[in-house]
């Protein structure tokens, strides 16, 4: 009897916990898309900067390029407007009003355009009284604003945390998420909740955050420089014991946007950001002008093998497993026993740096691997237990490889041979 009671109460608790948690079925792999903030900030003067101001023109132009230049096909599906899209005052009915000059057609028409090209629509708001740039926040108008977003067919909301006490976030963010859930429209929910708590030296409750948000900004805003990207990598490595376990299908840590294609990163540094973000199972949100994207950066953003690592269905965030002399090794376990390993140099001494690492250093299960260079700069090679793995890494650069268990490679070759000989035998049999 007691057993049955326990089972029944577990069932009820199970039902309650699944209904209060975020249950939108989205982001089974890290979200991919494009977002205005890092590159276009709060540029609102369209007379002076017609190609850069936050406006429907910028969004439409980006949507067209995402389709024509292969970004959508590669998986980048969300196009998001960050801060600075609102009028400074709500309308007489209390509703949010998109800037009348920069969004003359309104958000529903923009959403229709985005959807007609096969993309999804993301938008920014803030949980406080004001957004970080001083536009009206949602506090006190939550339901009305959510209803408005649903009328506009929004697919993704980034909810920032300026102008609200971090102490209120533990209840506020889940409450907003539940309201989103109740609309019945699947809306991806990006929370800035832990970023403000980390900043206030509180310890965020990541278990709760992972239950209520699809992705969450953990820490500082990324800026367009190697120093900033490098600092963020260090922070994610230093804090991985608290963070990594909470990432998984439906819920991801977010180290912030990709800088690739802007002014601040060299090609080597851009490759490094892409590799480490792939290992971290991070959302891949480009924030660059696609109209002026140089081919070498585009190649990095569209690298199919690296995107496949990022999107691996096991959904396990990788770890920094070794760091010495400003060289670090990042290891992500993938499905089917494969691994992605990034060897990152944060050295500034001007020449490629050589390291030799053991299986133990790389935290690699002992078996023979075929090693494929994900940037296609080197030929494939084999490494076996007992051997050391040698790499040479450019300053502020990366070597990024997939380690494929050799028995798997052999397995598939043998399978092909068997298949071929069966076909051959069948042909012979059929002839007789
Ligand atoms: C905060 C966020 C940024 C961006 C700006 C907009 O700083 O962390 O990502 O959204 O606000 O004002």
Describe this structure in words.
With 432 residues, the protein is α/β, with parallel strands linked by helices. It folds into 2 domains: 26-310, TIM Barrel, CATH 3.20.20; 319-409, Golgi alpha-mannosidase II (Immunoglobulin-like, Sandwich). The chain has 16 helices and 16 strands. The chain has helices spanning 2-20, 37-40, 56-68, 71-74, 106-116, 142-151, 169-182, 193-199, 206-212, 226-238, 240-243, 267-279, 295-301, 304-310, 359-362, 406-431, and strands at 32-35, 78-81, 120-126, 156-160, 188-191, 215-217, 252-254, 284-286, 319-324, 327-333, 339-345, 353-357, 369-373, 381-383, 389-393, 398-405. The strands form 3 sheets. It has an 8-stranded parallel beta sheet. It has a 6-stranded antiparallel beta sheet with strand order 9-10-11-16-13-14. The chain has a two-stranded antiparallel sheet with strand order 12-15. A hairpin with a 5-residue loop joins strand 10 (327-333) and strand 11. The model is unreliable at 1-6, 8-19 and 427-432 (pLDDT under 50). The chain binds alpha-D-galactopyranose (GLA). Alpha-D-galactopyranose is lined by residues 37, 82-83, 124, 131-133, 160, 192, 217, 221.
List keywords for this structure.
single chain, globular, 432 residues, Immunoglobulin-like, disordered C terminus, 16 helices, 8-stranded parallel beta sheet, binds alpha-D-galactopyranose, TIM Barrel
